[in-house]
């Protein structure tokens, strides 16, 4: 049984126990009130000329009693199926998180396995050639080294992503507008200077790499936001949200040394600083990415820039 299924079963039992307790309490209340029992009331024979008679209990009280009893029985009946449904809804975010984690691990394994397979193929071909020259062997070694550098960049990106998702280890005033060389207002943030530098670098790198020949990149800061736009190719609006997922690319092929982690790292760093990120596809091509970052508490008196 998976961890999610086990968690759902435990939550269902917990909810069912709560439902049963409520149902039994309601039934106990009805039993204590005894609304259905008739009440003997003495009537003055001299006044009415008749012996004492039994007068039934108040109809309203009887209706309330049966309503409470019915509600208690209903709670008992639906306890298990209702608890199972509620538990399923409760674990839905957990299931989604596990699924996302599984996809991330699978994609990371694929990204690491692919260059290893290519490296092994290059070396096998070079070593199996009986007429291999020094030049051909050197070229094979250089190809393997290039692939190794690519893997190193991937590992570094994964470490940065993990570090951003853990939160901030150090906080100090950082002038993001100076880091990005932006136009506009000064943007000073209380945060990690290394992570914020990575955020700016990834935004600029992403805007330059996914551009058109002779295109432009614009960086603007306001109090609380950093916006990076470019004149790249037209991007379908429905594809924009997926750009923030790890290893997601618009095309099937990797661009240069990029593994599809740039914007996911930007999002993780922004969230670690109490901010967020959004992207909009420009109608005439390109992308506009806006990162919101809470200004530093003493930004106006920081003296930076």
Describe the structure in brief.
The chain has 305 residues and is α+β, with helices and mostly antiparallel strands.
Supply database-style keywords:
single chain, 305 residues, alpha+beta, Heat Shock Protein 90, 5-stranded mixed sheet, two-stranded antiparallel sheet, 7 helices, 9 strands, 56% helix, extended, disordered C terminus
Number of strands: 9
SS content category: alpha+beta
Average pLDDT: 76
Low-confidence stretches: 35-44, 52-57, 300-305
CATH topology of the largest domain: Heat Shock Protein 90
Tally the structural domains: 3
Distance between the termini: 57 Å
- Portion in strands: 5-15%
Helical coverage, percent range: 55-70%
SS element count, helices: 7
Q: Biggest sheet, strands in spatial order?
A: 4-6-7-9-8
Q: Largest sheet, described in full?
A: 5 strands, mixed
Radius of gyration: 34 Å
């Amino acid at each position: 049984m998976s961890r999610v299924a086990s968690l759902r079963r435990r939550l269902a039992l917990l909810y069912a126990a709560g439902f049963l307790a409520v149902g039994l309490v309601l039934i106990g209340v009805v039993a204590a009130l005894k609304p259905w029992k008739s009440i003997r009331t003495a009537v003055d024979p001299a006044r009415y000329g008749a012996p004492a008679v039994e007068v039934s209990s108040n109809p309203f009280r009887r209706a309330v009693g049966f309503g409470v009893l019915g509600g208690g029985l209903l709670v008992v009946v639906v306890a298990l199926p209702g608890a199972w449904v509620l538990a399923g809804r409760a674990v839905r975010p957990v299931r989604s998180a596990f699924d996302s984690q599984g996809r991330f691990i699978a994609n990371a394994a694929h990204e690491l396995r692919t260059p290893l397979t290519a490296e092994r193929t290059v070396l096998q071909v070079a070593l199996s050639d009986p007429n291999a020259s020094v030049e051909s062997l050197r070229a094979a070694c250089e190809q393997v080294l290039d692939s190794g550098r690519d893997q190193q960049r991937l590992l570094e990106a994964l470490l940065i992503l993990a570090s951003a998702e853990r939160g901030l280890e150090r906080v100090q005033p950082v002038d993001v507008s100076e880091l990005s060389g932006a136009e506009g207002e000064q943007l000073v943030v209380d945060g990690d200077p290394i992570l914020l530098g990575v955020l700016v670098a990834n935004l600029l790198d992403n805007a330059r790499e996914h551009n058109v020949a002779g295109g432009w990149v614009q960086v603007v800061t306001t109090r609380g936001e950093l916006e990076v736009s470019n004149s790249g190719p037209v991007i379908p609006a429905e594809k924009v949200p997926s750009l923030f997922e790890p290893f997601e690319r618009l095309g099937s092929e990797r661009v240069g040394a990029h593994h599809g982690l740039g914007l996911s790292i930007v999002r993780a760093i922004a969230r670690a600083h109490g901010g967020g990120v959004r992207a909009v596809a420009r109608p005439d091509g390109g992308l506009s990415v806006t990162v919101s970052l809470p200004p530093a508490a003493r930004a106006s008196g920081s003296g930076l820039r």
